[in-house]
Amino acid sequence: MERLMRKLKKYLIPHPENDHRPHLLRRHTVFFVCGLMVVAEIIFLAGPSYLIIRSKLFGVIVVNALIDETNENRLASKLPPLQVSPLLQAAAQDKANDMATKGYFAHTSPQGLTPWYWFGVVGYNFSSAGENLAVNFSDSQDVTNAWMNSPEHRANILNGDFTQIGMATAQGTYDGRPAIFVVELFGAPAGPAIISHQPPTTGKSAVVIAKSKTKPAAPIRLAVATSGALTSTPSFVAVKGAETQNAGTPAGNNRQSAVSNQNNPVQNAVAAPHAIANDIYLFIIGLFVIALVLNIFIKIRIQYPGLIMGGVIVVALAAVFIVLNNQAVSHILVL
Fold it and tell me: What is the mean pLDDT of residues 47-69?
């Protein structure tokens, strides 16, 4: 502890042993910290487009982080966590691949395939279901924040009717630039049913009808909310009270994995580079502000303008990088 205190005094507090010039504010330290921040920011900003986006591992890590963050938000609202359903995972991957391959971003594809089509492809019969989408992101926490700040998407995440979740990402091109598409599907399995499906007609979405063995046919009741601030198309979709087309055994809906954290702390850091970067910059700002205050007021008669200027430069540069990171977040689109 004594050794640590001597180090802190050497780097932060002006006194005769360091010639009243704290080492943290000296020119070589300022140059080193500024250079380190510049390199780190280049990696954070360019990485998603040129490095991370080409890594399949990043997609897996982001999916796991998003599932963890979704369940954390549900637990904070005193809701049970969602179980991971392999069927919903498969449906989400099919939808993500379709958007990435065809370069669109919408709940309904250019061919008129609705979200419920993908549930039917994997044989997931549901009593309640919903879909959240995102694109142009590189940080899982940014996506979660965007969804939670939207009343419609938040309603999906905190919907007490849902019991299962499936999520997937796919790499593609959107608006002429590389992008990662993310699909988050929610569901609650339905009981056995005999389902018929009418294929979509040109310009119209598919009509999905559920035929129960004991009840007459009942059409899906579709609830759609829009968000004009982001897009003119629906930003949220959820249905309740119907099942998808028949495609497999209803019992398959109950296949799920136990609720647990999908990522370890290192993977969570990889999935949230902007958040980690901003935390580092805030730490640097705090450290240099403390050094500046101590340097100015402990020996108010002994001042070195060069030291003060160096500290101010570090603080200003870190603040600029935080603003840049927040601007990068603003390009995220959610549906």
Answer: 63
Residue 155 pLDDT grade (very low, low, confident, very high; cuts 50, 70, 90): very high
Amino acid making up residue 211: K
What letters, b where the CB count within 10 A reaches 16 and e where it falls short, cover 272-283?
bbbbbbbebbee
Q: What is the pLDDT of residue 236?
A: 61
**Which residues are CB-neighbours of 61 under 8 A, at least 6 positions away?**
140, 263, 267, 270, 271
H helix intervals, the chain? 2-12, 27-50, 56-76, 86-102, 115-121, 140-148, 151-157, 265-271, 273-297, 305-329
For residue 333, report the phi and psi dihedrals to the nearest 5 degrees: -115, 140
Claim: this prediction has a pTM higher than 0.70: no
The neighbouring-strand residues paired with 197 are 208
Looking at residue 234, its amino acid is P
Q: Which two tokens stand for residue 251?
A: 């019992």
Burial string for 67-101 (b: 16+ CB within 10 Å, else e) reads bbbbbebbeeeeeebbbbbebbbbbbbbbbbbbbe
Residue owning tokens 């003119």:
232
